[in-house]
Write a structure and sequence with these properties.
Layout lengths: L4 H7 L1 E20 L2 E20 L4 H4 L4 E24 L2 E26 L10 E27 L3 E12 L4
Antiparallel strand pairs: 1-2, 2-3, 3-4, 4-5, 5-6
Length: 174
């Protein structure tokens, strides 16, 4: 009961294509002496398409008279941060303040189907199979946003006092 590997390689097919678009952008503006604003935007878009055909003439495909499976997946990620930074010196002491906003989102969607019973090995599309076996669909999405701030005061670089605050919200928590 061994598989004929050369026959399987020649007759069975698997095609998987992945497309990905990445972007990371930021802009820093000097608004006044000691005051900067930084804006960043990042996204990652991914599309996956898979198609698998098991020829009915191979041992793997002969069990079900050939099988066909197809899947399509989309993944979208986005992140942005908007941050103000202020630096100044008072006498020999340094004051630094940071305030900002961050936002992230993630979305996943996958749809797929599988069918058996191929009337001809030349018909390799999912719609040409006789018996639908399974369909599947999956979806997931979440978002998160937050505000943050920090004030730091250094006395002659010997004593440093820092206060940090952050407030976040997420769609995962309800």
């Amino acid at each position: 009961f061994l598989y004929n590997i050369p026959q399987m390689l020649e007759l069975n097919e698997y095609v998987g294509k992945t497309y990905n678009l990445l972007s990371a952008n930021d802009l820093t503006l000097k608004l006044a002496k000691g005051l900067e604003f930084k804006s960043s935007y990042n996204f990652d878009l991914t599309w996956l398409n898979e198609h698998q055909f098991s020829d009915p003439r191979t041992r793997l495909g002969s069990r079900v008279n050939g099988s066909i499976a197809a899947n399509s997946t989309d993944i979208n990620k986005f992140q942005t941060e908007q941050v103000f930074t202020y630096n100044t010196t008072i006498n020999e002491n340094r004051l630094t303040a940071v305030a900002g906003f961050s936002y992230s989102s993630y979305q996943y969607h996958m749809i797929g189907a599988e069918a058996n019973g191929v009337s001809s090995p030349d018909l390799k599309l999912l719609s040409s199979a006789a018996t639908p076996i399974a369909t599947t669909e999956s979806y997931s999405e979440w978002k998160m946003a937050g505000f943050f701030g920090r004030v730091s005061y250094a006395i002659r670089d010997k004593y440093i006092f820092t206060c940090t605050v952050r407030y976040d919200g997420s769609s995962r928590f309800g």
